[in-house]
Design goal:
Number of domains: 1
Helix content: over 70%
CATH class: Mainly Alpha
Radius of gyration: 18 Å
CATH topology: YheA-like fold
CATH superfamily: YheA/YmcA-like
Largest sheet: none
CATH architecture: Up-down Bundle
Distance between the termini: 34 Å
Structural class: mainly alpha
Order of helices and strands: HHHHH
Strand content: under 5%
Shape: flat
Length: 119
């Protein structure tokens, strides 16, 4: 087995392990529940778009647009008032953190000097 094939095999095993994990199972179930409601999907899409604009402004050292900040705060409050949505967003953050940790370990093993925000 070539080294590349071994890496692909290990990667697939990692994917399968993640998908069997309690964290992923919870995230997946919450996502399915939340996304089954059109209003939730639309609110999440707007929330993510606004969040991305704010993150891009921060990354480029530019002051965020006041309207975007206000919109993000209102959307956050609205989304976190919904119990299922709040649980979904928290589960999503846990999955993003797990993915970031995996990526950070792989980058470290490859001796790549990559800095991820918050890590």
């Amino acid at each position: 087995m070539s080294e590349h094939t071994a890496i692909q095999t290990a990667t697939q095993q990692l994917v399968e392990t993640i998908r069997r994990s309690e964290e992923y199972q919870q995230f997946s179930a919450l996502k399915e529940s939340v996304m089954s409601v059109e209003t939730n999907r639309a609110l999440l899409k707007e929330y993510q778009r606004t969040q991305t604009r704010l993150q891009m402004a921060a990354a480029s050292g530019v002051n965020a647009d006041a309207e975007d900040v206000e919109r993000f705060n209102k959307l956050s409050a609205l989304l976190y008032m919904n119990g299922d949505m709040s649980q979904y967003l928290m589960a999503q953050m846990r999955m993003q953190q797990l993915a970031g940790e995996v990526f950070q370990q792989v980058a470290k093993a490859a001796e790549l000097d990559l800095e991820l925000p918050g890590m």
